[in-house]
Amino acid sequence: MISLEHMDSREIEAVIEAILFVSGEPVKVSRIADVLGVAEHEVELAADRLRDSYLNRGIRLVRLEDTLQLRSSPEYADFIRRALETRKPPQLTQPALEVLSIIAYFGPVTIPYIEQIRGLDSSYTVRLLQERDLVESCGRLTVPGRPVLYRTTHNFLNTFGLESLKELPELPHVENATDEKEGIQNAILEIKAREAEMAMEPEVPAEPEHPVMTDTEQ
User: Fold this and answer.
1) Residue 80 resides in a domain
2) Do 172 and 184 touch, CB atoms closer than 8 A?
3) Is 203 within a domain?
4) Separation of CA 53 from chain center
5) Is residue 160 predicted with pLDDT exceeding 70?
């Protein structure tokens, strides 16, 4: 067994690689630092070196906010699909895209806020996005009734090929209701473009997800 007290930089990289390989899911930098008994910035530096070592390789290391994850390289998507016969889940419906865009660009937000923008009941769609692990609750707003706040998840970043929400294109500054409506439409277009782009990238084989259905509102 390797002693943590005498690990050099290459061994730290190897441990990080092993953890991420076995996990398959994003792992917090702080968790890896605790396991190794080193500062978080040392884990980040080691991760940067690992990421550089994967250039022109079949896998890559990505940073998802405060987590790290190993992914397959997108240029080999067709080979992976053909070898593993993977199938991507159904694309998001227009109502789901609208709700997801509002949460991604303006979150954390409440369902009443989403409904105010859309003019439609949106609780059903929010619930379906939660089931697909694209959004999650993150507390309550400190107003009467204490409505639940929603934000996007790490899986949202992973699904749309982002390392953080900061990588989403910036929307025009909103000054009035007309600008806000235009901003929402731009947000939907950006998320839809990301979805189309990621449809060409590989994904790790998983259990089939339930398709997102359209809202039941009329």
Assistant:
1) no
2) no
3) no
4) 24
5) yes
